[in-house]
Design brief:
By secondary structure, this protein is of the alpha/beta class. The chain has helices spanning about 10-20, 35-45, 75-80, 95-100, 145-150, and strands at about 25-30, 50-60, 60-70, 90, 115-120, 130-135, 140-145, 155. The protein has five helices and eight strands, in the order αβαββαβαβββαβ.
Length: about 170
């Protein structure tokens, strides 16, 4: 049985971006962008310009942490941004796929069945352009951090684990 076009993860992202007025293009490659290193090689950008979209659960509700490729998310920092939330955890890959239709390795920052709260790693804003997955581990699109903030209705936040990443203090 053929998949409906709206079930295609790249089409879901493309439709969202078009409706939101995004003027860029989704690129597809035979090379994978499954890891930050893969994505860096495939798109020709440094790892810190690769966007990692991490689906979290805050007391069961889905939220997004949009991270610079070199940073790790600090779950406690995310929880502090959510008054009343007791627990923030990484969503399991199967749960992400079931909820969103996107498999880990190609999870985009947009195109979800419902609007999700999104926190953008402040280190993203050092970059002129970041490269985001567009629904699969072979599709991606460039976007400025400012435009990404608008597309996601997100919040710029200090959510990286300290001592990790681009703006970490020197030893």
């Amino acid at each position: 049985m053929a998949r409906r076009e709206t079930d295609d993860p790249v089409v879901k992202v493309r439709n969202f971006l078009q409706e939101a007025g995004y003027g860029g293009k989704i690129f597809e490659s035979p090379d994978t962008i499954f890891t930050v290193e893969d994505a860096s090689k495939t798109v020709g950008a440094p790892p810190e310009a690769i966007l990692k979209t991490i689906v979290l659960q805050a007391d069961g509700a889905f939220i997004l942490a949009l991270m610079s490729g070199v940073n790790r998310v600090d779950l406690k920092a995310v929880r502090r941004l959510l008054p009343g939330v007791k627990k923030v955890s990484m969503a399991q890959p199967g749960t992400v796929l079931e909820f969103s239709g996107f498999a880990v390795g190609g999870v985009p920052p947009v195109g979800y069945p419902v609007s999700l709260k999104a926190f953008l790693d402040e280190d993203l804003f050092v970059q002129e352009t970041v490269w985001a997955a567009a629904g699969t581990d072979h599709a991606f699109f460039p976007v400025s951090p400012g435009e990404l903030l608008g597309l996601t209705c997100g919040q710029k936040a200090a959510i990286k684990k300290e001592g990790k990443g681009l703006l970490a203090p020197s030893p």
